[in-house]
Amino acid sequence: MSTSSSAQHASLLDKQFINNQWVASSSTRLLDVMNPYREERIAQVTAGDAADVDAAVKAAQQAQPAWQALGGAARAKYLDGFADALEARRDSIITLSATNNGKPLAEAGIDLDDAIACYRYYAKQAKALDARQGELVSVEMEGVEARTYHDPVGVVGLISPWNFPLVTSAWKLAPALAAGCTAVLKPSEVTPLPELVLADIALEIGLPSGVLNLLNGDGEGIGAPLTSHPGIDKISFTGSNRVGETVMQTAAARTANVSLELGGKSPILVMEDADPTQAADWVMAGIYFNAGQICSATSRLLVHEDVAEALYAALAERMDALTLGDPLAEDTDLGPLTSAKQRDAVQRYLDLAEQEGLTSVRDGQHRTLPAKGYFLAPTLYRDVPVESRLWQEEIFGPVLCGRSVASEAEAIQLANDSAYGLAATVISGDSERAKRIGRQLRAGSIWYNSEQLVLPETAWGGFKRSGIGRELGPWGLSAYLEVKHVIGPA
Ligand code: NAD
After folding, report:
1. What is the CATH classification number for the domain harbouring 422?
2. pLDDT of residue 12
3. Helix 193-204 and helix 3-11, axial crossing angle in degrees, nearest 10
4. Is the distance from the beta carbon of residue 393 to the nearest atom of ligand 1 less than 6 Å?
5. Which of 195, 295, 394, 408 is catalytic?
6. Ligand 1 in reach of 163 Cβ (< 6 A)
7. What pTM did the predictor assign?
8. Residue 295 appears among annotated catalytic residues
9. Where are the alpha helices (DSSP H) in 136-223?
10. Is 87 designated active site?
11. In terms of Cα–Cα distance, which of 156, 146, 136, 145 is closest to 482?
12. Residue 11: predicted pLDDT
């Protein structure tokens, strides 16, 4: 089957993917899937329920022992199969993703390419896992032999958000399958279409039945029963703090393993030795990419007072040059927000900014928005008080808040003064200085003189309220493995 087959059953997708079959949901409720640029419904998916979850978990439980027994090298072939099949469907997936999500084509391409790189990376990790089984541990006690094994956690529930559907699901599914886990994947009900292609691919590459089950539905119908299902050994969740905390509480009731990738309010520090025009490019990339709907958006700008005016001028120039429009048009820089709900949530922060009398460098008054679509103007406030909710809370839209600082120490102190700790960027003319500053920041990913550079080999995850655990790299695989020792007389 091809992506177009997903797009076809996209018009009415009232089935669930369980045990390698599209089966009727026990729910008759449907959810609308929108094109946020045209404000039109492009599909309806089933609002699945607890009975669907139960069937999917049973399928995954049945499939798990044989999938584990296959060994890493055999599982790697399927992971490479996912990567090859995604690559073969590149154009149609990018179009589908831009249509459902509202992200410009180039950004939809990044979502897909990063997902492909992730499947390929974990194919290699799966092969390497075989060689790590039964490694001898060096122990001081004489006459004892101890060996280490890495067993899969078991059946995993994977819950994704809507902002980067392909990559956020790949970061979970690829290491889970590499480890020997079987999965129930729940895409976001806002952007299910790109992830549904994974079911077509599972059939095409002959993935054994029950290894990947994919359920459509909302948080209440699928997310909550998946999290509380006794057959789920681990939940890996990416999304908001509000839901992530509920997931953690639910999992705690049966001491189930959880990984959480949550929100962020990441800082970007522009030091006095930075070239303000070059820094402006990094600042722009850190906040207006995907219309600011990115967990690691560097949405708090801390700029040294010596370069603040030059930086704001360069930013205003760049913001005026942004083209807002059809995500499918090649020259579009910023698409609409992904949903009316998200547009309204961001608008509430813009209203608050007006009430607080924040100073804007650029906002909705500086441009005319397209007549249709969930658009908001790229916005930049300067001199934002640290007490403002706009400074402290994740807005998840094209809104940048700036403050001037008088010293490196003040920049570091303010950067760390946040409930979150997902990422941070340091821009300096001296890269050694930028690295040194970066070491003092409490966040999982620190970029210096670059932005949003995420590679499959390097860890992804947050300090503080940004989450628990790490995805990507060997750490991402460990999240789906249990370490076991076999020990006795030599
Ligand atoms: P969300 O929390 O509203 O939804 C995420 C997923 O959880 C969806 O699939 C949703 O259906 C499901 N869900 C809702 N209620 C549930 C429940 N009670 N139990 C289980 N699942 C439930 O988040 P969102 O709006 O889709 O995504 C935006 C958020 O995701 C932002 O806060 C962003 O920072 C975060 N995010 C984090 C990362 C990261 O890597 N740290 C990456 C992307 C997005």
Report:
1. 3.40.309.10
2. 82
3. 130
4. no
5. 295
6. yes
7. 0.96
8. yes
9. 165-179, 193-204
10. no
11. 156
12. 74
